Structures are given as C-alpha cells and as structure tokens.
Amino acid sequence: MLHQNISTELNRACGTLRAGFAFSRGTTRLTRLHQAGSAKAMLPPAPGCEIVLLNTSGGLTGGDRMDITVTQEAGTHLTVTTQTAERAYRSTTGRARVTARFEVAAGAHLDLLPQETILFDRSALLREQEIALAGDATALWVETLILGRAAMGETVRTLDLTDRRRITRDGRPVFVENLRLGDATLARGESIATLAGCRAFATLVLVAPDAADRLDRARAALGSDGAASAFDGKLVARVMADDGWPLRQAMMRLIQAIRPGPLPRVWQI
Fold first, then answer.
1. Host H or E run for residue 28
2. Are 170 and 212 in contact (CB under 8 A)?
3. Of 157, 96, 87, 85, which Cα lies nearest the Cα of 124?
4. What does the pLDDT look like over 85-123, one tens digit per residue?
5. pLDDT tens sequence across 108-167
C-alpha cells in the first residue's frame, strides 16, 4: 500500500515557470526564464513581444500543480497566451491547483489572452490568478470557460471549480471575481442564474485610463452576444454562447475592437 501511494504521488503532473521581461534597445525582451516539469513557454516571432504558455502533460487532473509567475519591468508591452485550450479532466484524487501571478511595473502593459479552459465531467480545479499592477500600469485580461464539448455529446453534471481572479494596483483591489461552480449550480439547468443553459462563457476586463472611451466599440462588436459596461477606469464585458466556437468568434471580434494590433497567432489557428 505504501508503494502504491508513493507511485500515485510521483505520477502527478507538476510545473513551475518563472519569466521576466525588460525594455531594452527600444523593445520588450525576455531577461530570464526558468521552467520545470510540465510548465513550458515559447516565444514565437510576432509583432511586439509574446510568450506562449503550455502544459506538456496534456491537461489537468486531481493532484496536479502548476505555478506561474511572469514579471514585467517599466516600459514593457507583453502578450501572454496559451498554445491551446487547457483541459481539466475527471479527477479521482482531489483537485488540480493552478496559481498564476503577473507583475506589471509602472508604465508597462499586459495583454493576458489565454485560450479557453475546458471543464470535463467530474473535473476538480482550484485556480488562483492575480495581475498586480504598479503605478499607471495597464492590463487587458480575458478568461473563457467551456463546460464539456458539445460536438462530442459531453454533458457536465458533476464539477468542482473554484476560480479566483484578482487585479490589484499598488496592492489595492481593482477587480475581484470569485467563481464557484459545483453540482448544485449545474442542477439548476436552464435558470438565468446559470446563464440559461449556455455551456460557454467568458469575461473580459480592461484596466486603463481610456477604458470608458472604448465602451461603444465593445458594445458594437458584441451586438446581442454579450454585454459591457465601463466605470472607474475599467471596462468589463460578459459573453456567453451555446458552445466554444461561437463564443471564440464573439471574443475575437470584441478583442480586436478595443485592442490595437493582431490577435496572437495561436488564436487564429
């Protein structure tokens, strides 16, 4: 029995990634990169500076651990995305845990644009993410969740998700969202409280002095697919759809309407 428990522990996927960026010779450059376990990163040729995160284990299940820290120095402009959708699979050994922190110095900007997270039936995930802004730093953050794959006939009936999202400025909260999805929530089915049965939903948050100036463009891009509001230096948009593909199309329109430049290449494949 002892041997079996040790083997199970060793088989859990663990990953650690630490990346740092500085402004040098007129552009944003990688200054340090530490990657261990299943957490890896790529820096593809792209306009500006872009880092693509990937999980080489192929997905998350109970007991897995991922720990990510990305630090930007003053004057940098960075896009962080993921190679593909993250997948949280059925768990039999507790929760997977993902911790991510993005530190953005004064005068810097972060576009945090990961691809979707797909939650499978009986998955269990605790995710804690923070963007820590300093001074006049700005950020754009998108998070997308999909409950199973409609094309595969998947239905999520059992789920344990805790998703904590936080943006701070000089240590003070700017945006805080704690999402909890469990069996009782899913059992409500078509209620308005559970997005009228939609299986795919996303949140976009822009923190910038001109956030309110982009509100009309955001609403025009969304049409009837979502809603957006702006207040106190923030623009927040909510989008939902029956499945992941129409949601992605809506999010691409929205991001392109309020953000200059092309989307990350991995979004367009």
1. strand 27-37
2. no
3. 96
4. 999 999 988 999 999 999 999 999 999 999 999 999 999
5. 999 999 999 999 999 999 999 999 999 999 999 999 999 987 666 677 888 999 999 999
* Partners of 227 in the β-ladder: 238
Round to whole Å and give the CA distance between 152 and 183: 21
Q: What's the mean per-residue pLDDT of the chain?
A: 91
CB 32 within 8 A of CB 46: no
Token pair of 250 as six digits:
């809506």
Cα angle for residues 240, 252, 143 (degrees, 5° grid): 55
> Given phi > 0 = left and psi -120 to 50 = alpha, else beta, which region is 115?
beta
Taking only the tens place, the pLDDT of each residue in 236-257 is 999 999 899 999 999 999 999 9
Amino acid at 211: A
